[in-house]
Write a sequence for this structure.
């Protein structure tokens, strides 16, 4: 039961951390396309680091799937949104949290559906 709870925390907190760090790295004067590329690359690098740190404690399945999905979805969208001057770090952190939670929720229900007999 504790691993099922950890799945939601891993997805949600990793999405928030990725969005916040991407907002710190990418300047608002950058082109939106370059922001998307840099955000995707930053999300991938953060995904690998978090994966190496969390896999010994929670296992590969609980860590790799949400982090890979968050790395691309949150990374690319946060990179694009961080180039807009009206979007703040709080907006992006909430966005990353929401996307991370939705990724965790979809993984939970798809796993529940696939393991049903």
């Amino acid at each position: 039961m504790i691993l099922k709870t950890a799945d939601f925390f891993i997805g949600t907190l990793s999405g928030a951390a990725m969005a916040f760090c991407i907002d710190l790295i990418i300047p608002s004067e950058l082109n939106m396309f370059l922001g998307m590329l840099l955000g995707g690359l930053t999300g991938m690098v953060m995904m690998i680091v978090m994966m190496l740190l969390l896999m010994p404690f929670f296992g590969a399945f609980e860590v790799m799937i949400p982090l890979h999905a968050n790395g691309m979805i949150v990374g690319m969208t946060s990179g694009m949104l961080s180039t807009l001057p009206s979007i703040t770090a709080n907006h992006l952190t909430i966005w990353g949290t929401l996307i991370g939670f939705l990724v965790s929720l979809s993984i939970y229900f798809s796993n529940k559906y696939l393991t049903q007999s």
